[in-house]
Amino acid sequence: MYENMNDRESGNSMMAFSLGLIAGAAAALLLAPASGTETRRRLGSVAQKVGERAKDTMDQGKQFVNDQKDRFTGAVEEGKQTYRKESSPSTM
After folding, report:
1. In the chain, N or C: fewer CB atoms in 10 Å?
2. 3-state DSSP assignment of residue 6
């Protein structure tokens, strides 16, 4: 998912932007003149969207961790194989 640190930083920036956008939308809803029922409906909608975004962000984080774990495990296995190959007696 993230190939290097710049991709990760871009992801963090995008998440911060998204959270700011959601916070701004929530503030606009609270400050806009509307009936109590309408405001509660709007806040419920915003809360649902925030929940969906949070779930998506968590899923992306889990995927990133799993990808890194797989890469690390693969690197360790390659290292073990190389060590075994290099440390075994040659049969020439």
Report:
1. C
2. helix
Q: From the CB of residue 85, how many other CB atoms can be counted at a distance below 10 Å?
A: 8
Cα(76)–Cα(46) distance, integer angstroms? 45
**Phi and psi dihedrals of 9, rounded to 5?**
-65, -35
Given a contact cutoff of 8 angstroms between Cβ atoms, the answer to whether 34 and 42 are in contact is yes
Task: Provide the residue-wise pLDDT of the chain in tens; the chain has 92 residues.
Answer: 445 556 666 667 777 888 888 888 778 777 777 787 887 888 888 889 888 988 888 898 899 999 999 999 999 999 999 999 988 876 44
d(CA 65, CA 73): 12
**Residue 29's CB: how many other CB atoms inside 10 A?**
17
- pTM beyond 0.90: the answer is no
